[in-house]
Each structure stands twice: as C-alpha cells, then as structure tokens.
Design goal:
Distance between the termini: 56 Å
Largest sheet: 8 strands, antiparallel
CATH class of the largest domain: Alpha Beta
Number of domains: 4
Structural class: alpha+beta
Radius of gyration: 23 Å
CATH topology of the largest domain: Uridine Diphospho-n-acetylenolpyruvylglucosamine Reductase, domain 3
Length: 469
Amino acid sequence: MTPPAQPLMSAADTLVVDLQAALPHGRVVVDADVARSLSRDQAAGAPVGEPAAVVRARSTEEVRQVVEICLRHRTPVVARGAGTGLSGGANATDGCVVLSLEAMSEILEINPLERLAVVQPGVVNDDLRAAVAEHGLWYPPDPASSPWSTLGGNVATNAGGLCCVKYGVTREYVLQLEVVTGSAEVVRIGRRTAKGVAGYDLVGLLVGSEGTLGIVTEITVRLRSLPSAPITVAGFFPSLVAAGVAVRAVGAAGITPSALELMDRYCLRAVDDWKQMGLTDAGDVLLLARVDDPEPTGTALADEIVEHFRASGANWAERSTDAAEGDALFAARRLAYPALERLGPVITEDVCVPKENVPEMLGRIEALALRHDVQIANIAHAGDGNLHPLIIGPSDDDADQWRRIHAAFDGILDAALDLGGTITGEHGVGLLKRGGLVNELSPTVMGMHRAIKEAMDPAGILNPGKMFE
C-alpha cells in the first residue's frame, strides 16, 4: 500500500526546522502572539512585518548560527534588545527572523585599573551603572530609557541622554566590539588600550549603524570616575523661545553643565495629571540644569546659570539646596515620555541644531503645530541642541489627522536641516526618517553609505529596509 504523500514544507517551515535543529530547545519561538510582541519597538506609526520566527539567543555562537542559517536561506535578520527604540529600527519585516539579544545579559568584566567594563548586549544601562559604581566608577551615557534600554541597543543607535552635553554619547565610550558579520563570521574590532590608531575606526562605524552592518555580541566600554554630587538649578519660563534664549545664554557664557533639560507645558501637565507633582504652577516651560564640578566651582557655576535664566526672562529661577528635590525634578523629566503616552500614540522627533539656533527651532516647532493643527509637546536635551518634539497621535484611525501629523513631522526635519542641524541626534533613522536621511546627505555620501553596507553585508540580510529607502 502506497503511503499518503506528505505535504511539501514552505520555505519558512524549512527555515524554522533548520533553526530548531541547530539551537537548544526553547530558543526558537514560533507562537504568533509572542513573536508579534517581540516584532516592534516603540515608534508609533512605523510599519511592522510578520516574522517567520523569533530566536532568543544566549551566546555569540548561537547568534552566529542564526546568521549562517539565514544566510543560507537568504532570510533577513532583525536584531533587537529591549525594544525601547523610537525610530522603528528594530521592527520586523515580513518573513524575517527576529534575533532577540535580551537574554545575553552578563557583565563579563569590570576592570578598575584600565577603567573599562566588558558586557553582553542585553545588559541594561542602569544595571551596568550600578555595578561599576561599586568600584567608584561611572558609565556616563544615560538615555531617558536607561532603566530599561540595553547596551546593545544603545550601541546600535549611538544613544546619548541627559549627561551627553558634557560627557558625550555612546560612541565616545565604546573601545571594542565583538560582532557577527553578514557572512556569519565572528570578528573583534577596536582595542582595550587607551590609545590605538591601527586601521580604520570600525568601532566608530558600527556604533550607530542600527544593526545593518553587523550584530554586536560583546561590548567593551570606557569608564570614568564618579563625579561630584550634582547641584540642580531650576527655572520656569513663560515661553519656549524664552527658554531657548536661556539655553543660548548659558552656552555663550562658556558654561558646560552636566545636564540642561527642557520640558514644556504639555509635558508638565501630563506629568502632573499622572503624578500630582505641582509642576504647572510656576510657568509654561521648565529648564533643569545640573553642574557636577567640585566645590567651590560647582556652586559658583550654578549661581551663574541662575542669573542667565533670570536675564533671559525666567518667571522664577533658583539653585536647589536640597538634593532630594533636585532628584525629584529630574525624575519628572524622565517621566515626561511615558506620561504623554497615556494621552495617545506618541510620534517622537529627535532633531539636533546648533545651540545658537535653539530659540529659532523651538519657535518653528510651535508654528508647525499651529499650521497643521496638531499637538506637539517638547522635551529636550537643550544643552546640546538635541530637541525631542513629541506629536500626540489620535487613539483611532483618523486618516486626516495622521496626514497632518506626518506633514508636521516632515516640517520639523526640514526646519532642523534649514538651521544647520541634523534629522536625528540619538534615536537613529530606522524606518521613520529614511526620507530625511536622503535630504540630509548628498547623493555622493549616500553612495558611500551603500558601498559600506554592501561590503559588510554582501547578501543584504542584516536589518534590510532600515536607514535606506
């Protein structure tokens, strides 16, 4: 008797079988609901595909095997960490393998003599900070998502944060990377030494490449000594432009605070409605500055910032003498984004302009909100001109409102470029800003980018469709 014919497996089925055969039990996730929950970041309005599978890797070798199998099947690989990104850079494409690195979360080494740490990509930013603080050391990059975001994601987007005005962004702290290439090879780039100029700066190239040039499986970061206890300055202003003038005045005076953050009335109200902190009682816009210079310099700089705030039109400005009060104000700043998310989907901008143009850029953002009849809230790492206009989207599928939102979004990008800025300071291009990248970079420079991508990912399987249209 002839046995019944077995149905032919699809290409996706064959891919999953190969992954399951190569990897330990439980690594490959095919449950549609679970896969869907791991298939996007927090970028509202960015398209999301349906992956063939999710792999929760636990070692460099497992990552290499996944890339090797996907290379054989010509299947895209989209790496992800905690999914806190805001540009769609970790969103799945149809039929891809989503490679989750969140379980690779070990701190492998802390070296106080060399002032470095070696971590896997799934280590949470704040966990690293806490671990090195026990040795009197500090890892400065601190995105607002630092309690949840991972070092791998921070490397992928060259994340910055509140302290970057004085201490720089992720790229300044990455010494060495272990990377799985698009050809499924494991390579180590960079070095552990304080100096080194042998060859091109491939570490600098990989940091900020959004998973399009390689998948990072180990990170060696530079550490600093813990800074002095910070002094907080708060100032409330009647308008965004007045606050922008204060930012420019502090920069023109040659003062580099360790943080200089802005929250507008929409953010203050959202935090107040959620946490009842009384922030909206004193003004429409809050500027928060911190200095961490040793005494007596720290107090003198803080007092000077107060005077610049007042001279720029602050309704009220003072130096805090209560560390707990200062910490509470900065905690409110970190709450701004989740507070706004309670109002509806948030489409996040990330433009950066020269400090001298911060007042003009803030004024243009307000004008765009009026022109397109959309609500735009503003938070900012104002000290280095990195502005985060947050467009509040509708809770339903209102096509006309989404059209106006996208028009305002594009207008903000155009305004930043017109003022000598960039379309993204730290969130990355991802899916949302591919058109803006074309406007910022010349055709020749775009060609250079594409040539690098082709050289490092010849099969084009690493996070395709991101950054480039």
